[in-house]
Amino acid sequence: MTRQAKLLIIDDSPTQAQSYANHLEAAGVHVMVATDGPQGLRMAESIQPDVILLDVRLPNMDGHQVCNRLKRNQQTQHIPVIMFTVSSDITDRDAGYEAGADAYIQKDREAIPQILAKLAEYGFIAAH
């Protein structure tokens, strides 16, 4: 029996985070939610999720800053980070990769299948 994949969503919109969580939990993923960067950093270090889904636009500390800190921390640098945003700005995407993001997904109706595909690619869930 395989263990359930753990995913941490860091998103300042509780409604949107819960919507993503509901879809991902239906696919067999255990989801935890942080509502800002500092909380997300603390949770990532203590929970050690398999993957982090990180919004670019966050209060206090933006997603690029959070990603950079995750990738510089020895305890979290191994965790794949999928950045996601409503913006289609190529500058945001490039900044995400420069900060250490492993993938970048635009928030739209295709985001859930893309997230599930990334989780399968990383070997945390079976391919859908």
Briefly summarize what is shown.
The chain is an alpha/beta fold and 128 residues long. It has helices at residues 14-26, 37-47, 63-72, 90-99, 111-121, and strands at residues 6-10, 30-34, 51-55, 81-85, 103-106. Helix 1 (14-26) links the parallel strand 1 (6-10) and strand 2.
| Alpha-beta classification | alpha/beta
Number of helices: 5
Helix proportion range? 40-55%
Oligomer: single chain
Shape: globular
Strand fraction equals 15-25%
Mean pLDDT: 89
Largest sheet: 5 strands, parallel
Which regions are unreliable across 5 or more consecutive residues at pLDDT < 50? none
Overall number of strands: 5
From the N-terminal CA to the C-terminal CA, the straight-line distance is 18 Å
Task: Explain what the structure shows.
There is one protein chain. 43% of the residues lie in helices and 19% in strands. The chain has 128 residues and is of the alpha/beta class. Strands 2-1-3-4-5 form a 5-stranded parallel β-sheet, with helices on both faces. The mean pLDDT is 89.
Task: Provide keyphrases for this structure.
alpha/beta, 5 helices, globular, 128 residues
Indicate the topology.
Elements: E1 6-10, H1 14-26, E2 30-34, H2 37-47, E3 51-55, H3 63-72, E4 81-85, H4 90-99, E5 103-106, H5 111-121
Parallel strand pairs: 1-2, 1-3, 3-4, 4-5
